[in-house]
Design brief:
The chain is an alpha/beta fold. The chain has 25 helices and 14 strands. Among the domains are: 271 residues, 3-Layer(aba) Sandwich (Rossmann fold); 59 residues, no CATH class; 178 residues. The longest helix is centred in the middle third of the chain and has 93 residues.
């Protein structure tokens, strides 16, 4: 019974066995890989080379006899540059840009349509390159118009002569006269277009300037009228800001001084009036002198008279009594004097009040006059500011108007100078002979283009090819190590067939011990013996993704190589659906695995031996059973493998393709090493990857893959087994094999 395999989760979540832990690295794109691809697809390159040569000869031999006529014109910068209207100084048009613009104009659809219409090219048989009379069509039809313009643009060539202001115009056709006529017509229409477009441009500029001038003229007149109105309102014929400011400042200053004096006078009068109105009448005489216009002497005399009369009255009262006539007279005199004094006091108070009111009225009138003068000054100031702005606006508008008038006159002069900027240097003449490309140039150009297309096709075919051919590609896709590369077997010649047995005819390692084919199986043996740690694998299972990939050939030849050592090897044909091992060795297919599992034959009766390989036993498949899967998954099969494990050093099992049936998956779980055989150039990436995933999910110990039926002359494997001729130069292979100890390999280190 095979030992159990250890599993580990893969990065994708699928369990991996110890044999499937290899991670292939994708090969980087390099020049060497590109050369390998070209060598692999050399048939495509050979076909491209032949087609290129044939097409080149055909194109060079039957190239059209085209007549090319050419003319040259000079497009000068113009003599009117000093009069040209420029937006800013120093921003002249670049010469190269101008020339390229002129070339684009000559190739424009509008100009070529004019040429085609004037020459009626749409109905010209020579232009259309047809024999006989051309059908009458209208150039106004969109399809005809587009075709005609496209033909003109295809055959017309307009180029700039380097480091000059000369443009070369050429046209190629089958008719020499037509070529010359078209070139001359293109040049003529181009010059005419220059006249018309420049004239129209100047007309547009003049019209625009005239519109601007009309508007500016109205603005100038309006500004001038407004200035005159302001001058009338201000009251002056001329305008001098300094004099006007001085004339407004003098009245304001006088009124300000008068208002201050009136205010002071009012304050003095008011204070005297309030003082007199609120003081004792007996003390008024002390303040009389404070008021101008009073009579202090009369006021004092009244008081003196009153005081003398009172003294006399007092004396009479003491001597003669109050009823004395003299005393009564004096008493009446005192009363009369007091009335006069009171009247005088009242007069003084009234005089102070009137002086106060007069001062107050004078102050109010003075302040009102000052405010009125200020308001008038403000109005005059606003009018002066408006006048200044309007004068400035008038001056600006008048300057712009004068400038535009000058530009308008300059534009008129320039319109006359622009017409001399284009000169015809050479007119188109009738070409004397056709322009033919050199035979070698046509050949090389065609060959180069076809070869480039061939290379592209080769790489496209390589990218679309899903087949597996190189080891690096297979390891990158399958993520399994390669155990060996099996080359194609060399066929046995007719003379050798008659002297060989069936096993020798079918098993090449028996008759070709020094060949590359046999050496590859020795390398496979070494890889398998070193695949597991601790001990060599006992149960070796060979399977493939699809049929006809060489798994039976690989199993039979490896079994013979293993049996050439001092070991006992058993080869089991477990393909119970399409058995083939017994045919390879010329054995009987009546007994084998199916009869042994059903108990029809014993173990010894089922075993068959090969005379050419004494240490090799063969267990053929036997008759095809009705239920192969149930038989291979039975307990009898497990017991058989356990018994074989005790009797043989190695057990090689040939199983069916795993994508066709599940027999191989069942047997793979009981093997120590599972080898996936991939046929070179047959298996696709998707099929092999699916087979690998199926084995990994089943827990099979996948050791690696074997690339079978490789053409060593292909670019990928050129020289891969170049050392094989060196291996057995002095020692015979069979005798050397007999000297090796068990477990050794003659090719260790060479895989």
């Amino acid at each position: 019974m095979a030992p159990h395999t250890t599993e580990s989760p893969s990065p994708t979540g699928v369990p991996q066995t110890r044999g499937a832990s290899f991670s292939g690295t994708s090969s980087e794109t390099s020049l060497s890989e590109a050369l390998l691809t070209l060598r692999k697809r050399k048939s495509v390159l050979i076909v491209a080379l032949i087609l290129g040569l044939a097409l080149g000869v055909y194109r060079a031999t039957f190239q059209p006899r085209l007549y090319e006529a050419h003319a040259r014109i000079q497009v000068r910068s113009g003599s009117s540059n000093e009069y040209r209207l420029s937006i800013l100084p120093g921003m002249g048009e670049d010469t190269l840009t101008k020339m390229n613009t002129e070339i684009a104009i000559m190739e424009s659809d509008t100009l070529l349509l004019t040429v085609a219409r004037e020459m009626n090219l749409a109905n010209n048989a020579d232009f259309l390159e047809i024999k006989g009379k051309a059908p009458h069509v209208s150039l106004d039809t969109p399809s005809v118009q587009a075709t005609t313009i496209h033909t003109l643009q295809s055959n017309l060539t307009v180029t700039l002569v380097p480091k000059t202001e000369i443009i070369r115009v050429s046209y190629s056709s089958l008719n020499p006269k037509l070529s010359a006529d078209i070139v001359n017509r293109v040049v003529s229409d181009y010059i005419q277009r220059g006249f018309e477009t420049r004239f129209q441009s100047q007309q547009k500029v003049s019209a625009w300037l005239q519109n601007q001038l009309d508007g500016l003229k109205q603005e100038v007149e309006s500004s001038q009228e407004q200035m005159m109105d302001l001058q009338k309102r201000i009251g002056m014929l001329g305008f001098d800001p300094k004099d006007n400011q001085m004339s407004m400042a003098a009245p304001l200053e006088d009124l300000s001084k008068a208002a201050g004096a009136a205010r002071i006078a009012r304050i003095i009068a008011e204070s005297r009036y309030r003082m007199l109105n609120g003081m004792d009448p007996g003390t008024i005489d002390g303040t009389i002198e404070m008021t101008p216009g009073t009579a202090p002497i009369e006021f004092a005399q009244l008081r003196t008279q009153i005081a003398g009369a009172k003294a006399t009255y007092a004396q009479l009262m003491t001597t003669q009594g109050p009823n004395n006539p003299q005393a009564l007279q004096i008493s009446n005199q005192i009363a009369e004097l007091e009335k006069l004094l009171a009247a005088e006091q009242k007069r003084l108070l009234t005089q102070a009040r009137e002086a106060y009111l007069a001062s107050k009225a004078g102050e109010q009138q003075t302040v009102a006059a000052l405010e009125e003068q200020k308001a008038d000054a403000y109005r005059r100031r606003d009018d002066l500011v408006a006048y200044t702005l309007k004068a400035r606006d008038f001056e600006t508008t008048r300057t712009l108007y004068d400038g535009l008038v000058s530009r308008l006159r300059t534009a008129g002069v320039q319109a006359g100078l622009e017409s001399t900027e284009i000169d015809v240097v050479d007119q188109a003449l009738l070409p004397s002979k056709p322009q033919l490309k050199p035979f070698s140039t046509v050949m090389l150009t065609t060959l180069l283009v076809v070869m480039v297309l061939g290379v592209v096709v080769a790489f496209v075919m390589e990218s679309l090819d899903t087949g597996l051919r190189s080891i690096a590609e297979i390891e990158s896709v399958i993520e399994l190590p390669s155990l060996a590369i099996i080359p194609k077997a060399r066929r046995t010649t007719a003379e050798q067939v008659g002297n060989l047995t069936t096993a020798q005819r079918n098993i090449n390692v028996l008759t070709q011990p020094k060949s590359q084919f046999t050496e590859s199986f020795r390398s496979l043996r070494t890889s398998l013996l070193l695949a597991t740690t601790g001990h060599p694998p006992k149960f070796l299972l060979f399977t493939s993704a699809t049929p006809s990939e060489g798994k039976t050939t690989t199993a039979c030849n490896l079994a013979c190589i293993l049996a050439q050592r001092d070991t006992r090897v058993l080869l089991i044909d477990a393909d119970l659906r399409r058995p083939n091992v017994h045919h390879r060795f010329g054995l009987s297919g009546k007994v084998g695995l199916s009869t042994l599992l059903t108990g029809s034959t014993t173990f010894e009766e089922s075993m068959q031996r090969v005379v050419e390989v004494p240490n090799l036993d063969i267990l053929a498949s036997g008759p095809v059973p009705p239920f192969p899967t149930e038989m291979l998954s039975s307990a009898a099969m497990t017991a058989l493998l356990e018994r074989c494990g005790t009797l043989y050093t190695h057990v090689v099992i040939d199983s069916p393709p795993i994508l066709s049936v599940t027999d191989g998956v069942i047997l793979a779980r009981q093997a120590d090493a599972v080898v996936l055989v991939v046929r070179h150039g047959k298996s696709s990436k998707h099929i092999v990857r699916r087979a690998r995933d199926l084995l990994i999910r089943s827990g099979a110990p996948i050791t690696g893959l074997v690339l079978n039926a490789v053409d060593l002359n292909s670019p990928e494997y050129y020289g891969y087994y170049g050392y094989s001729g060196y291996s057995y130069t002095s020692i015979d292979s069979d005798s050397w094999e007999s000297q090796k100890q068990p477990g050794d390999s003659p090719t260790e280190g060479k895989n």
